[in-house]
């Protein structure tokens, strides 16, 4: 059924990962009169420590999506994921780009398949390890961005690209000035979970997404779809979702309703050079079978 094409939303929007510190989701930014501040009880409530907020638009590339009645066996350095308890609901061998924004349905090209009736507690996704982020807004104190020579309280993402990997990361993702700035799309490639100075990490977990019991586990994989052993081996990203509420598909199910929770979809922070930086944070979509 055509409406089942929207099943992919519950998976694709939740697999966007915090790139700077993935041990846990950062605190949500305080936004007062459209000005972003760090949520804090201290006198310094700037973005000094980093916080999560809402992007204008996020783009992800999706290859395959599955709904699972129990958790699949996840990939290791010597084996691929075992999807025995899962049913594939979406496929595009070339990758389909989904543009995600708050409160709006999205559409992607590919083959959609209705899953069998049943109760699905997990989801699994095959994705590209690149993400496009677009954002503009105002911060509480004047800062310089990663590009340009100006400073100010108005900041935005810039048109460009960069890679976060073991040993290095991008700093060319933002610009700031004294007046509002039209944002560009910055495309970041994820070849490392955690900080660039950390040991290489190919797995990551975020629990309690947006205050729910939803959980995501991310796996950076190599060309054989096995867990990558080095930052240079990373080709794609796979992700496992534990749903906050099971998705129940019955013979009476005719459509899927989606509402987005994107309060922490983007991470902003001051880097070691005291410049304003931005990156991805976790999204969540809430799905109801109708």
State the secondary-structure class: mainly beta
> Any idea what the radius of gyration is?
19 Å
β-strand percent reads: over 45%
| Rounded mean pLDDT score | 80
Would you report the number of β strands? 19
Determine the number of helices (DSSP H or I, runs of at least 4 residues).
Answer: 1
The number of domains: 1
Helix content: under 10%
Give the topology string: H per helix, E per strand. HEEEEEEEEEEEEEEEEEEE
**In terms of per-residue confidence, which ranges show pLDDT below 50 for 5 or more consecutive residues?**
1-25, 257-262
Shape: globular
Biggest β-sheet: count, sense, barrel?
9 strands, mixed
Cα end-to-end separation: 13 Å
Give a verbal description of the structure.
This protein is mainly beta. The chain has one domain. It is built from one helix and 19 strands. The strands form four sheets. Strands 4, 5, 6, 7, 10, 12, 13, 14 and 15 form a nine-stranded mixed β-sheet that branches. Strands 1-2-8-9-11 form a five-stranded mixed β-sheet, with no helix packed on it. Strand 13 and strand 14 form a beta hairpin. The longest helix is centred in the first third of the chain and has 4 residues. The protein is globular and about 55 Å long.
Please supply descriptive tags for the structure shown above:
290 residues; 46% strand; nine-stranded mixed beta sheet; five-stranded mixed beta sheet; single chain; disordered N terminus; mainly beta; 19 strands
């Amino acid at each position: 059924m055509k409406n089942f094409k929207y099943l992919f939303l519950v998976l694709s929007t939740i697999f966007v990962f915090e790139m700077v510190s993935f041990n846990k989701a950062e605190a949500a930014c305080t936004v007062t009169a459209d000005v972003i501040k760090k949520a804090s009880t201290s006198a310094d409530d700037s973005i000094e420590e980093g916080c999560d907020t809402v992007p204008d638009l996020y783009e992800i590339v999706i290859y395959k999506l599955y709904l699972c009645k129990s958790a699949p066996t996840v990939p290791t350095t010597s084996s691929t994921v075992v999807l025995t308890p899962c049913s594939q609901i979406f496929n595009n061998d070339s990758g389909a780009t989904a543009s995600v924004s708050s409160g709006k349905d999205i559409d992607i090209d590919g083959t959609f398949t209705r899953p069998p009736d049943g109760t699905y507690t997990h989801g699994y996704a095959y994705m590209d390890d690149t993400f496009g982020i677009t954002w503009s807004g105002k911060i509480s104190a004047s800062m310089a961005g990663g590009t340009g020579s100006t400073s100010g309280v108005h900041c935005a993402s810039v048109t460009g690209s960069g890679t976060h990997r073991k040993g290095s990361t991008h700093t060319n993702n933002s610009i700031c000035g004294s007046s509002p700035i039209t944002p560009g799309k910055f495309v970041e490639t994820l070849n490392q979970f955690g900080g660039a100075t950390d040991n290489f990490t190919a797995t990551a977990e975020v629990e309690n997404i947006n205050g729910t019991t939803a959980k995501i586990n991310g796996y950076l994989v190599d060309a054989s779809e096995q867990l990558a052993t080095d930052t240079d081996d990373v080709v794609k990203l796979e992700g496992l979702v534990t749903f906050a509420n099971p998705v129940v598909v019955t013979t009476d199910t005719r459509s899927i309703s989606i509402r987005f929770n994107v309060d922490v979809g983007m991470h902003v922070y001051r880097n070691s050079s005291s410049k304003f930086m931005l990156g991805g944070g976790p999204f969540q979509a809430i799905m109801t079978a109708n």
